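Appendix C reproduces, verbatim, an entry submitted by the partner laboratory led by Prof. M.T., so that reviewers can inspect both the input and the predicted structure.
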Amino acid sequence: MRGTVVREVLMRCGILVLAAVGVTLSTEARAQGRITGTVTAAQDGRPIAGATVTVVGTNRTGATDASGRYEIADAPSGTQQVRVRFLGFAPLTQTVDVPAGEAVTLDFQLVAAAVQLEGVVVVGYGTQERRDLTGAIASVSAEQIAEVPTPNPMQAIQARTPGVDVVAGGSYRPGVPMNVTVRGVRSIAAGNQPLYVVDGVPLAGGIEDFNPAIIQSIEVLKDASATAVYGSRGSNGVILITTRRGAAGAPDNSIHVTYDAQYGGQSALHLVDMMNGPQTIAERREAFRSAGRPTDNASVFTPDELPQVLCATDAAYQAAHPGCATGTDWQRLVLRTGYQQRHQLGLTSVAGNSRLSLIGSYFDQDGITIGQGYRQYSGTVSFENTYRRLRIGVTATGTRSIADIGADASLWGEALANNPLGLPYDSAGVPSATLCSVCTLKIKPTPDALRVNPLRQAQGFVRQQTRNRLFGSVFAELQLGRGFSYRVNFGPDLGNRMDGQFQGANVVLNQAPIGNAQAQRTDAEEFAYTLDQLLLWNRTVGNHRFDVTLLYGIQTDRSTTTTAEARNLPYDDQLWYNLGTGENPQPPQSTLSVWKLASYMGRINYAFANRYLLTLTGRYDGSSRLAAGHKWSFFPSVGLGWQLGEEPFMRRFGFISGLKLRASGGTTGNTSISPYQTWGGLDRTRYNFGSASAAGYRPGAIPNPDLVWERTAKLDAGVDFGLFRDRISGTLDFYRERTSDLLLPRSLPASTGFTQVLQNIGKTENRGWEASITTVNLPGTGGGPRWTTDLSFTHNRNFIVALASGAADDIGNRWFIGQPINIGINPAIPPYDALRQVFYDYVYVGIWQLADSAVARRYGQKPGDIRVRDINGDSAITAADRILLGNTYPKLLASIYSRLTWRRFDLSFLLQGRLGYTMNDAFGSGATRLFERFNNLNVAYWTPMKCDGGPDPNVLDGPPGMTAAQQAAIPGCNSYWNPSAGRENPLYNDVNSSSPAYRPGGHWRVRNITVGYTLPASLVSRFRFSSLRVYAQAQD
């Protein structure tokens, strides 16, 4: 009832305000004008793209395009001060008289000098001068985003901002969503993804559909002072995206057109070093010898393999069969060069105080694995108009993406594990292991039931995901006078997804052909909208400056899914259509999810003498996800700032060109709770009714109406600095976050009829530091080269503080007090995150040698087996001998970005480092089973002749023929075990334990290298171009 009353009152208020708007339009108001011009570099006259142009004392801003042109369409008339800022140049302020209803031209020439502490940034529900910020906010410009040709904007900011970790989400196929975290993770069972906000509208779905080409800037809000404006959704950080408005600064009554095209290709530089045919032959014989079985050709190899064996080992056979195949390199058969292209066309039309822009783009990328690819079509239209005191605007973006997923990881895994002695084509095909368009593919390369033909899988297994999405924002802003303004934002987000999967008749599943074809189709639809009403007040009184924001907003989200499946389809090419023709249609499945959120928010930014800063924020959120009595919660924050560098007593330190201290604290929430988690649910079941079996329902989960949001209390202290006239500038932040009321399952006694119930129990903590430093190595004065470098460093540590019922540890889930968060055990059971793992396992010691045979027998092992440490010394290896070995969280994230410009040439590169973590080489573990039925990594393995020097390789007992020092000098003697013909997984190297696979992890990678040249304006103007730049790029 309370929520209903509030909604009705605010609706009436909204009607009254809109009525006021109508009255205002009929009265005289202060007129406005337009300011246009260009921004160029003073030393060489080249245009500066991405510079921010602001009318001082107002929120009227513009940005320069690739030609350096800008426009502020709704500038107040009269004498105004206009300021231009751009990183790497000193800010410049000029005075101009703006005629009412007319346009005026104002050009700027900027002098090179690093500027880190100045600029305008987007914050939640508005913009703010960077010098006035009390929160931790990082920015990425459109120019930096454009340097990485990718359809995913989060991949474009990878390694660009401290505190933000962006990695591929479990696959490297084109179009795969990225895994993004801000300042680490803090939740065990709920989500850790940040909130994405586009043009003030929170997105309902993911960000992967969003075209990076239309982005003007990205801001990352990290601490409580910055994120508290989003209350219950701010715990995991907030990423704000501001879209382009087309090319700015076009002349009145004109059309401005831009076009950008990129072409490229990608391929695997290094293949996995797997065993080839001859190496597999030797490993297979050793496996049979170790098992005490005959090692002649007929005993070891199948008839299908024998021709390849003879080709590799028998000179007479080679002479009789020139060009015969010794095996198949399955990797090369499933890999290819993946070509990609991107095209973007932009159009802007300006007429008086109206501006219309259209941006269309097309992206197409082939995967490097056959059967995979990604295509994205995107179009954006935006319109703005200013009439006296009223400014209105609308932006709408539509995208359509088609992802060809194919067999995905299973195809690549089969190519690595497949027997190199098998051939992809039947006897009618070519004998060599090369691609053949006229040959018949085998269903299985050999009679081995475990192995399938990856080329057959790629041909008969089709999976495609199609996503359509339409989202945008509509706003109206009215200047009420005396510093007050009223703004309404409405943002709809509509999306649908079709996920189709088809398996042809000859696709092998569960070690046998499935018979006739089968298919599955899932259709999902989601519609959400956000409606915000804001009252803004901006006023300066003497040395006091106020910026106040009040908000009431609502958000609604509704999503549905429907799944249909059929087997024994009549056609091998019908994909996931006409499923009713199948003989065995499966029962359809469907879901519905609806949730709503209502919010009140207030924020006060106060500055005294432009040096002492205060930000107070409070947000009150009510959610339908929670039960009565727990729906509403308050999230406050406070931020303090001190422009220490502008104090008079700091003038003596001439080398300090800027210094600001910041501190903030507050509370935010995490709304990642299922909408019906508090209700419980029913499951279908069967029971005995007399002598018959009847269908019925039973409680599937215990309802818990006491569930609340996970809450995160955040503390942050930071400093922004500039040295030596800003030749060196940067930021440094230290933070601590504690999350309480974690959503965790509590175990229940069997007598309840349930195994567990979800409750708010447990705590985690997140702490660390982050730094970004910009250096101007060469200033570019006098027409010389300009060279800048950006350094970024992040150290984060998260750990569990408390678990359910005060438990010390939960070994089954790998949750340990004082250790990082382990998210999931089984990849097939969500939530699971391969990048957030804690390793609790046996300690790998090496290989049992001949001298250790007596001790090995005590543990039920023999020389050549894996040796692990007996931690408790009880002469038995049990679960009690496992210990903590490490985790996948890097101790340090680092990046280096450097850019050199000279005249019309430019060169840049980006390096990224993940350092100081433990990796579980699951692939290496699985590919070194040294089981004779799988292919293996090409490694040196243990044999008694090689490592013990015994006269008889079948005798594994007695004195060694070599010393330990001699054994250490031989590759493989203490690294990889003896091959096996009878045991698929060696002890301590199976699906439950992979002790040899743990090793220190860390790497540096070259993310991007770009070389460009901007053609002279005198040349490109002949073709009616305003600017033209050509460039070559390489990226990893």
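The domain at 257-264+339-418+450-610 is CATH 2.40.170.20 (Maltoporin; Chain A). Additional entries are available on request from the coordinating office.
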